[in-house]
């Protein structure tokens, strides 16, 4: 049985679009923008190609100014609203805790934003520790193997005793492999892919025939 499960945050434990929706609503309420306008614009964007998702959203909504961008980023960084953790994620984390399996979140991105997501999700009671990649001394992020190694060192855990689960092939799946950690690609399309967190349990409990 694995001793440590390392999890990505966005689009692994919850749908990140729900966070953006809350941010856009906060912005629209504060600045009198048309309700739903920003979320509709957000849905029209090809997110993997976007280098500034907030700017691209405002541009798509025909509403971009630097002042609005700064105000929207402020909401993105600190807006407070209830963000519900899916029942499937809650069940998964509670099950791991019941088996005394330690859990960690390892997340990239602006630290203040990621901390706000964690607070709005109220996920801290279900997780042993959250690691914000940009807080390390080198400011390196996933897929840098040092991010994963730091998590292992913090728990006194060997690579073979841990498993990584995330939705990003490069950042989560390959990054963990570079650190010699067993990894599962959530909603991926290779032989180590899973569609749900629950499908990870046999790998965590090592109830399968493959070498872990």
Largest sheet: 6 strands, parallel
Q: In oligomeric terms, what are we looking at?
A: single chain
Please give the alpha-carbon distance between the first and last residues: 9 Å
Strand content: 5-15%
Low-confidence parts, pLDDT < 50 over ≥5 residues?
none
Shape: elongated
Q: What would CATH call the class of the largest domain?
A: Alpha Beta
Summarize the structure.
The protein has helices at 16-31, 37-43, 53-60, 66-78, 87-98, 111-121, 145-155, 169-178, 201-205; strands at 4-7, 102-107, 129-132, 162-166, 182-186, 193-194.
Q: What are its keywords?
A:
Rossmann fold; single chain; alpha/beta; 212 residues; 44% helix
Can you give a write-up of this model?
The chain contains nine helices and six strands, in the order E-H-H-H-H-H-E-H-E-H-E-H-E-E-H. It is of the alpha/beta class and 212 residues long. The termini are close together. The protein folds into two domains: 4-15 and 84-205, Rossmann fold (3-Layer(aba) Sandwich); 16-78, no CATH class. It has a six-stranded parallel β-sheet with strand order 3-2-1-4-5-6, sandwiched between helices. Helices cover 44% and strands 12% of the residues. It is elongated, with a radius of gyration of 18 Å. Helix 1 crosses helix 4 (66-78) and helix 2 packs across helix 3 (53-60).
SSE topology sketch:
Blueprint: E1 4-7, H1 16-31, H2 37-43, H3 53-60, H4 66-78, H5 87-98, E2 102-107, H6 111-121, E3 129-132, H7 145-155, E4 162-166, H8 169-178, E5 182-186, E6 193-194, H9 201-205
Parallel strand pairs: 1-2, 1-4, 2-3, 4-5, 5-6
Helix pairs in contact: 1-4, 2-3
């Amino acid at each position: 049985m694995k001793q440590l499960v390392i999890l990505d945050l966005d689009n692994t434990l919850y749908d990140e679009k729900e966070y953006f929706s809350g941010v856009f609503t906060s912005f629209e309420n504060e600045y009198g923008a048309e309700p739903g306008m920003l979320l509709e614009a957000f849905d029209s964007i090809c997110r993997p190609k976007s280098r500034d998702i907030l700017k691209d959203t405002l541009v798509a909504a025909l509403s971009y100014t630097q002042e609005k961008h700064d105000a929207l980023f402020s909401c993105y960084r600190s807006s407070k609203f209830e963000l519900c953790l899916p029942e499937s994620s809650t069940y998964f984390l509670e099950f791991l805790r019941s088996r005394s399996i330690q859990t960690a979140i390892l997340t990239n991105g602006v630290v203040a934003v990621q901390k706000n997501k964690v607070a709005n999700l109220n996920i801290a009671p279900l997780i042993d520790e959250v690691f914000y990649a940009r807080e390390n001394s080198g400011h390196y992020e996933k897929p840098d193997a040092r991010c994963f190694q730091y998590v292992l060192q913090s728990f006194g855990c060997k690579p073979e005793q841990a498993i990584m689960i995330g939705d990003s092939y490069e950042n989560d799946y390959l990054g963990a492999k570079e650190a010699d950690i067993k990894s599962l690609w959530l909603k991926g399309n290779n032989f180590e892919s899973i569609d749900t967190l629950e499908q990870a349990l046999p790998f965590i409990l090592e109830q399968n025939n493959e070498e872990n």
